[in-house]
TrEMBL record:
<dbReference type="InterPro" id="IPR036416">
    <property type="entry name" value="Pept_tRNA_hydro_sf"/>
</dbReference>
<feature type="binding site">
    <location>
        <position position="62"/>
    </location>
    <ligand>
        <name>tRNA</name>
    </ligand>
</feature>
<feature type="binding site">
    <location>
        <position position="14"/>
    </location>
    <ligand>
        <name>tRNA</name>
    </ligand>
</feature>
<feature type="site" description="Discriminates between blocked and unblocked aminoacyl-tRNA">
    <location>
        <position position="9"/>
    </location>
</feature>
<keyword id="KW-0378">Hydrolase</keyword>
<feature type="site" description="Stabilizes the basic form of H active site to accept a proton">
    <location>
        <position position="85"/>
    </location>
</feature>
<protein>
    <recommendedName>
        <fullName>Peptidyl-tRNA hydrolase</fullName>
        <ecNumber>3.1.1.29</ecNumber>
    </recommendedName>
</protein>
<feature type="binding site">
    <location>
        <position position="106"/>
    </location>
    <ligand>
        <name>tRNA</name>
    </ligand>
</feature>
<dbReference type="GO" id="GO:0000049">
    <property type="term" value="F:tRNA binding"/>
</dbReference>
<comment type="similarity">
    <text>Belongs to the PTH family.</text>
</comment>
<feature type="binding site">
    <location>
        <position position="60"/>
    </location>
    <ligand>
        <name>tRNA</name>
    </ligand>
</feature>
<feature type="active site" description="Proton acceptor">
    <location>
        <position position="19"/>
    </location>
</feature>
<dbReference type="GO" id="GO:0005737">
    <property type="term" value="C:cytoplasm"/>
</dbReference>
<dbReference type="Pfam" id="PF01195">
    <property type="entry name" value="Pept_tRNA_hydro"/>
</dbReference>
<dbReference type="GO" id="GO:0072344">
    <property type="term" value="P:rescue of stalled ribosome"/>
</dbReference>
<comment type="subunit">
    <text>Monomer.</text>
</comment>
<comment type="function">
    <text>Hydrolyzes ribosome-free peptidyl-tRNAs (with 1 or more amino acids incorporated), which drop off the ribosome during protein synthesis, or as a result of ribosome stalling.</text>
</comment>
Length: 183
């Protein structure tokens, strides 16, 4: 079984923010084959199809690990893939990683503290500007919005490949240092 976690913050207030790009990708992956198996014990929205689970934690970013741990303890997946925003990558860049440091990302820190860091990560670049907190909790600008759907579609295809193959194969095929149409 594979657990794919998209990181973000719950509530409408944060729905379209840069920090919620993980949630946006889970929404892209969701289709009618997935069944909602959410439970209050999971502290998140959980969807299942065959051997794939999708998770959007209902905790705030800093407590994402609580939800991931609950789902991990219950389903005991063979692999965990976490999708999250990355300030240190240019907008639209996509990189893959297994283990390593959190890079200062509070959602990743929370997961690492509760289950360790032996999981795969898909990092989607959001760039960096001004005050970090205001930037990650801010909405995408108009230019970013024009290409966001294409970036998410590309990342969706990367995840679908990652499900079928190992991280090194997906990394070779889908790593992007910069989105081709980024402004």
């Amino acid at each position: 079984m594979i657990l794919i976690v998209g990181l973000g913050n719950p509530t409408e207030q944060y729905k379209n923010t840069r920090h919620n790009i993980g949630f946006m990708l889970i929404d892209k992956l969701l289709n009618s084959d997935f069944v909602d198996v959410s439970s209050s014990k999971f502290q998140g929205d959980v969807y299942k199809h065959k051997n794939t689970l999708l998770l959007k934690p209902n905790t705030y970013m800093n407590l994402s690990g609580n939800s991931v741990k609950a789902v991990n303890d219950f389903y005991k997946p063979d692999r965990i893939i976490v999708v999250h925003d990355d300030l240190d990558l240019s907008f639209g860049a996509i990189k893959f990683k297994k283990g390593g440091s959190s890079g200062g990302h509070n959602g990743i820190k929370s997961i690492d503290n509760l289950i360790g860091n032996d999981y795969e990560r898909v990092r989607i670049g959001i760039g960096r500007a001004g005050n970090v907190t205001n930037f990650v909790l801010g909405d995408f600008n108009d230019n970013e919005k024009k290409i966001l759907d294409d970036i998410l579609e590309y990342a969706k295809n990367a995840i679908l490949e990652l499900i079928k193959n190992d991280i090194s194969y997906a990394s070779q095929k889908f790593t992007l240092k910069k989105w081709q149409n980024a402004v």
